[in-house]
Amino acid sequence: MKIALLQCKASATAELNLDKTLDAARRAALQGAKIICTQELFLSPYFCIVQDSKNFNLAEKIPGKTTEAFAALCKELKVVMVISLFEDRDGMGRVCHNTSVVINADGEILGQYRKMHIPQDPYFEEKFYFTPGDLGYRVFDTAYGKIGVLICWDQWYPEAARLTALKGADIIFYPTAIGTLPEESPQDLKNFKTAWQTVQRGHAVANGVYVAAVNRTGKETALDSDAMERTLKFWGGSFVADPYGAVVAEATENDEGILFADVDFEKAKQVRRTWPFFRDRRIDSYEGITKRYLGD
Predict the structure, then answer these.
(1) Catalytically annotated residue among 9, 34, 115, 193
(2) Model confidence at 103, in pLDDT bands (50, 70, 90)?
(3) In this structure, what CATH number is given to the domain that contains residue 110?
(4) Which residues of 33-65 are buried (b: 16+ CB within 10 A; e: fewer)?
């Protein structure tokens, strides 16, 4: 089965980004993709570069205009989509989430996942905008298989991947927005990107699943409260790893495009039987994992 990841440069308005992403999803479906995933927060530039209360105007209710547009496309083309949105939970901007919605091939919204791990770093000011997720780790039984969804910063946490896999996922999608700061060197980029890909390939191996990470690309700039420019260069590099951790498809750093990959969920099942990591887990010895720190 073919899947597709939509790696794009953000345009200035939600309308342009919606049209671009719908068009890319349509092209992916017409080329045979059955499950299609967007990058993180695809409807806008990555507004979390700065803290600005006006950006809460970008949030939307779910279901809403965007989910309706993709539901119609899914129903027409018989595809499953994972779309990443800024969710306005109460319609008044008081509680907002970084949320991915899964839409089945008949146009039905199967549910949503709210990002659990929320970063707070310079240029990644997400705690200002997002309430941590409260739906737990979820798996969606779609027309084409059981898929899990995590989001960006969740990528670094093996617990998130493990719990998603334990719920039956054959593939985990990671909508992503990750890049480098102007003062970071090419070597920094190489180090960060290597770590980013390696940890996710490890999740694929440890859990016997496919992993699909879709990043945005291009430079994005915003003004901070002192009217100083902040710029992030997103490093693209969307990729798919199989249950052995092998990268079976990878996008370039700077180009927009549709990344296709062939996945075989029967292969994932066989890998889990060959390497029965779930069977041999010593769950009686893991009590400490729920503690913040064990060094005291």
Answers:
(1) 115
(2) very high
(3) 3.60.110.10
(4) bbbbbbbbbbbbbbbbbbebeebbebbbebeee
